[in-house]
Amino acid sequence: MTATAADHTPLPENDTAKESHPGDANTAAPEPTDENVWLEEIHGDEPLAWVREQNARTEDLLEDAGYAALEAGILEVLDSTDRIAMVNKRGDFYYNFWKDRENPKGLWRRTTWESYLNEEPEWDVLLDVDALAAAEGEEWVFHGAGFLRPAEGEPHRLAMISLSPDGGDANRHREFDVETRTFVDPAAGGFDIPTAKGHTSWLDADTLLVSSTAEDLPKTSSSYARTAVKLRRGESLAQAGRIFEIPEDHMLAMVAHDPTPGFERTFAVDYIDFYNRTTWLLRDGEWIAIDVPTDVNISAHRDWLLFRPQQDWDVDGTVYPAGSLLAAVFEGHLAGGRSFVVLFEPDESTSLQSWSWTRDYLLLNLLRDVSSEIRVLDPSSADSSGAWAATVLDACPPLHDVNAYAVDDEDEAAGDEAGGNDYWLVATGFTTPTTLTRGTLSQGEVTYTLDAGRDGGVASRHAVVKSSPSFFNDSAYEVQQHFAVSADGTRVPYFQVASKDLVLDGQNPTQLSGYGGFEVARTPAYSGTVGRAWLERRTEDAAIQDSSETHSRGGVYVVANIRGGGEYGPSWHRAALKEKRHRAFEDFAAVAQDLISRGVTSRHRLGCVGGSNGGLLVGNMLTQYPELFGAVSCGVPLLDMRRYTRLSAGASWIAEYGDPDVPEEWEYIRTFSPYHLLRDGVEYPETFIWTATSDDRVGPVQARKMAARMQAMGIPNVWFHEALEGGHAGASDNRQAASQQARSQQFLWRALAGK
């Protein structure tokens, strides 16, 4: 396990609508009248005819004379051949997946380290996805590759490649031989798992561990894989022996094998819900549950087992706070020991975001008031209390996002060629193009600070390898961090990116972005798209207050770090969970009010944008705070919170929002269900709702129904667009992504920058 997200369960892979609910229908909360249920037939003729009509109407509005240049400018950023080709090291090669104008579906390719250091590396193309799609008549979207770890001294050769037929989460998993550049023929025993949401892991050269709903394997009530099988070469899924199973009302089953020599282990995970799970170890043919509370996340690396509790964890009278990171010897914990080394403990301003093991060291990626800090820990250098020596990596400028992760912790080569303790460092900021650095960790001298704290033990040598180009005049802009005060007195940070000559007259077109859910942090990130499509776009028609003089100005871009996210760890997330969801909306509204009170913008110049859970956020801005915004761009959103559990993958998010079929929970859920909060006689902001037919995570129907209801109510300036492909991302190639982003940016600019 080379890189581990601190707490974030990957979004489970399944798109089938929920057909039943575990609750008793006789006690379920009543369902409000829904005149738009007919739009829930995702591929129905009538709903798609409605979609086509809406798309044509929206395109007529947005695609004016300037739109083509806007879209082309965004596409130039996405297709740029000067951007960094990020790589993953496997054996002697560095692998990359690349899209550009000539290869819209992309190339899976590899190169050597020596070649990668060149300005224009020589790439060996392994799979041309455009050619594959043309040959097979399927609009394949590449979703990654997982290699079989070869025997010592042998090259990495076999990989399971994940291909989506439409950009959604459902994938077909096919065995690929990188030496022959071909898929292994199923007739000759090659693995080929039918399209479904699921997961594969190599057990050995002739065996896969598979969790899937393909070929009628059972589903949970959330419609994800309920079982895992051991699939031998030449078998079908139906023939494979089932090795792991979870209750139907749990969320997802997954099995994976860790092939690290000397530490080979097979794990199974029962994802009970989004934040609770039980992890099992296969030993002597039996599954052994690793004894921790279900809300304590665990990961293994060689001798070590790491623990991150999502709530305060009391172990024999010692309380470890939520968001801390603990370590124990793997076998000692399995034998019943409960002795932990505290590797990280959060404070009011600092949280752990992720961690990554090199062969011998542990990298911690932290946020301190939403700016990065990286610590390197050495388990081989511990003091008398067992605390590991820690070094702060000097690589994190203020108001930037910097992440460190291992290059290849499996690299066991000897001497100077060893890469097992090498790490990548990826740094970015709102006005700082991304840089990629490679470093090497080694033992250094332990130093002691004046307060007797240990501050050292690990030395680092690192150098920049690649730098992204600048796509806009970033030197003309400055980044500021401000804090708004929410309704309950909580200080909420936000980033503001604006021209250095910003005039605080309330007339600046301002785009406010947020998310606020699932413990996902919004951090500084360079975006050529935002730079070109918003910051550098100029208007001449905004008059300075109390003057007839016009002032040419660009847009202001703001990112809010509201509760529900992960900027300050689990406590920040849980502060807006379920019945406390309103805290996230109050935080976002407080940021909007602060921007207005500071003179950055005004109601008619302020717009907000969000996608997925962020779509729920801005949907609530639309319905609960319409007086604060002139425009709302709402993408791939959750909006109908009464039926969300029955639509696409919605049932898996009950742990985040609550269960609307339970009357007591519907009582608070209905207070943040935008579809049910619309009222006559309200002056709503201009609204653009966008989604994708192939989104099999949130699905397109909530967006459809919201737009249809608003239009039927006679609310003016409500626009809708639905892409046919692209899944939850809304785009499966760069051109689709450019179109999607251009439509949102064009809508907001038209609504906010006019007279």
TrEMBL record:
One of its GO terms (molecular function) is oligopeptidase activity. InterPro entries: AB_hydrolase_fold, Pept_S9A_N, Peptidase_S9_cat, Peptidase_S9A, Prolyl_oligopep/macrocyclase. Keywords: Hydrolase, Protease, Serine protease. One of its GO terms (biological process) is proteolysis. Residues 552-753 form the Peptidase S9 prolyl oligopeptidase catalytic domain. Residues 1-33 are annotated as: Disordered. The keyword Protease applies. It holds the Pfam family Peptidase_S9. GO terms for cellular component: cytosol. Residues 17-254 form the Peptidase S9A N-terminal domain. PANTHER family: PROLYL ENDOPEPTIDASE (PTHR42881:SF13). This is S9 family peptidase.
